[in-house]
Amino acid sequence: MAGRQLRPHWVLHLLHALLMVETMSGASGPSIGTHTSPEFPASGVDQSPVVDCRRVCNLNASDRCDFIRTNPDCHSHSGYLDYLEGIFCHFPGELLPLAITLHAFWLLYLFLILGVTAEKFPHGVTFLAFGNGAPDIFSALVAFSDPHTAGLALGALFGAGVLVTTVVAGGIAILRPFTAASRPFLRDIIFYMVAVYLTFNALYFGRVTLAWALSYLGLYVFYVATVVLCTWIYRWQRRRSLIHSMPGTPEMLSDSEEEDRVSSTTNSYDYREEYQPLLFSQETTPQILVRALNPLDYRKWRNKPAYWRVLKVFKLPVEFLLLLTVPLVDPDKEDRNWKRPLNCLHLVVSPLVLVLTLQSGAYGVYELGGLFPIWGVVVIAGTAVASVTFFATSNSKPPRLHWIFAFLGFLTSALWINVAATEVVNILRSLGVVFRLSNTVLGLTLLAWGNSIGDAFSDFTLARQGYPRMAFSACFGGIIFNILVGVGLGCLLQISRGHPEVKLEPDGLLVWVLAGTLGLSLVCSLVSVPVQCFQLNKVYGFCLLFFYVNFLVVALLTEFGVIRLKSV
């Protein structure tokens, strides 16, 4: 599951899960009614009815702002910006197209932020690789508490599976054609097809029993054991072949492995090293700081085309902010990227970023004893540690505890990724309200996109760095974990609370369209990849993207009633 990307804190994972359930609530039927929000108990004074937020478009332009501000269903529990209030309260009705356009551009810039963070500061990608399925798992655990959202949780897992196995896998093949490892590919896709079949049966019968939930978890344990056993057998065969080979004979690599190694070596070349002076002069501390905070290489700027310069202009603020807040330790460099003034500044700025981004800054503004905010304590403590570090170290030699900066970089870049991903999810949901997309579509497409944004960027980054096999394997390993552990553990927890079984209520035809699409994509890959001798090229990648576009068309046509089952 290497290469997958995780959101960094369990509290934030739970917020994503609650956002998913909030978005899906009330989606069990076509009618739009009111109900009591769990956030406003019946005994409270400020009890407010919860109305589907999409009804805002049915109101007069003068009433929309009050509706957005007073309806709990229109409120977001995470993120920094209230996009619905921005659209309906800060723009007059006649300027609604302008508001949507500005939000769309901001959405594109958020995607750019995610891309820059994953590419230039891979700390977060590495740190997040071990638990990327956490948002989906927490979403499933919360959603299975209600039979109306349990079926939609399964549909959301299906939607994420379709996205990852088509868009992400196809993007990897387009970015870097490669030869897939045959046995791991067949193993993963067969296990995933079995998991999808189990879930399809659960939806068909409308319930998950104790034995069914245990079979999910048992299948995942069997999958992990199979992976471990296959890895051990492969290493044993490799050691045996090396023993029987002639002494001094270099290890033979396959074409793809040799290509990956050459590409990895090529991509690790630092463009700035070409312009290093032959005679080095001792830089002063201010010069080191200014040079370390400069995200622009002027020589490279002059040699690049115009479109690259335009994109670079948009990247510069993001890259400067990341340089200022994210420590970057490079073990391949002699000094391990030790920049004494900047790293000391990181000891103040990075912890401040941590407390101001964790749970959208709720922890940072909390006042101790009602007198002093936590962010102030962090600044004082960070300044003290930075002062000691500055006077106890030198510019030329990294300290013994330099590895602590790597860990700090892991956390900071991970939280930056989470902030951007959270805003993406919120703005997608807001645009869904504006365009009157149903809760089902939001749960099965937009939220699936939001949960898979990090996956795509981390896998694409791995592919560009010369590890397409690792990225491709992550596409299947992560979603196997999500569906087996998410469904199995979610249902098992509900059964352990006294329920004999977990009821599933699929929301109409769209869930079955998703299940059929995912099964069809897996069957097509199972047949086409071996036919190509496991050589995945750009044609295969574009075919997967075309498949996903067709799926979106069918899903939207189903949502708007163009495709529907005839009543008997």
Give the helix proportion (percent range).
55-70%
Write down the Rg.
26 Å
Show unreliable segments.
1-47, 124-131, 248-279
Please write the string of helix (H) and strand (E) elements. HEEHHHHHHEHEHHHHHHEEHHHHEHEH
Q: Which structural class best describes the helix and strand composition?
A: mainly alpha
Shape descriptor: globular
Strand order of the largest sheet: 1-2
Count of discrete alpha- or pi-helical segments spanning 4 or more residues: 20
Residues in β-strands, percent: under 5%
Extended strand count: 8
* Largest sheet descriptor: 2 strands, antiparallel
Distance from N terminus to C terminus (CA atoms, Å) equals 46 Å
Overall pLDDT metric: 77
Signal peptide: 1-26
Main location: mitochondrion
Domain Sodium/calcium exchanger membrane region: 119-228, 406-556
Family: Belongs to the Ca(2+):cation antiporter (CaCA) (TC 2.A.19) family. SLC24A subfamily.
Walk me through what this model shows:
Keywords: Antiport, Calcium, Calcium transport, Glycoprotein, Ion transport, Lithium, Membrane, Mitochondrion, Mitochondrion inner membrane, Sensory transduction, Signal, Sodium, Sodium transport, Transmembrane, Transmembrane helix, Transport. By secondary structure, the chain is mainly alpha-helical. 66% of the residues lie in helices and 3% in strands. It contains 20 helices and 8 strands. The chain has helices spanning 10-24, 64-70, 83-89, 96-120, 123-128, 134-143, 147-175, 182-205, 210-244, 255-267, 285-292, 298-303, 306-325, 340-357, 374-392, 403-434, 439-464, 468-496, 509-531, 538-559; strands at residues 34-36, 49-51, 178-179, 207-208, 367-368, 372-373, 502-503, 535-536. A two-stranded antiparallel sheet has the order 1-2. Strand 5 (367-368) and strand 6 form a beta hairpin. Helix 6 runs antiparallel to helix 7, helix 6 runs parallel beside helix 18 and helix 19 (509-531) packs antiparallel against helix 20 (538-559). The two termini are 46 Å apart. Residues 1-47, 124-131 and 248-279 have low confidence and may be disordered.
